[in-house]
Amino acid sequence: MARKSIVVRDEKRQAMILRYSAKRAELKQMGDYEGLARLPRNSSPTRWKNRCIETKRPRGYMRQFGLSRISFREHASKGEIPGVTKSSW
Predict the structure, then answer these.
(1) Checking phi first, is residue 52 left (phi over 0); if not, alpha (psi -120 to 50) or beta?
(2) Where are the domains of the chain?
(3) In the chain, at which end, N or C, are there fewer CB atoms within 10 A of the end residue's CB?
């Protein structure tokens, strides 16, 4: 489980990204890069961090499933993810 303070910081950052998305798109279209530079840094979409839905773990994230590798393996072993089977050869 990730530290609560870091998870809360990321949630705040995601809210700021959504809040400034329209303004950011408008400034980009006009070509006003100085105006973009004046926006808060955390409003940039590149600061969005993908995290596991269950554990909020930032590393080993599988975008297709929205889970970390650890959570993915647990669910796949139980057969809870459709279309995923344990391979054997």
Answers:
(1) beta
(2) 1-49, 50-82
(3) C
One-character DSSP codes across 19-39? HHHHHHHHHHHHT-HHHHHHS
Half-sphere exposure of 72 (CA within 13 A, CB side): 18
The terminus-to-terminus CA distance of the chain in angstroms comes to: 34
Q: What CATH superfamily classification does 50-82 receive? A: Ribosomal Protein S14/S29 (4.10.830.10)
For residues 33 and 63, what is the distance between their CA atoms, to the nearest angstrom? 31
* Tens of pLDDT, residues 4-51: 999 999 999 999 999 999 999 999 999 999 999 999 999 999 999 999
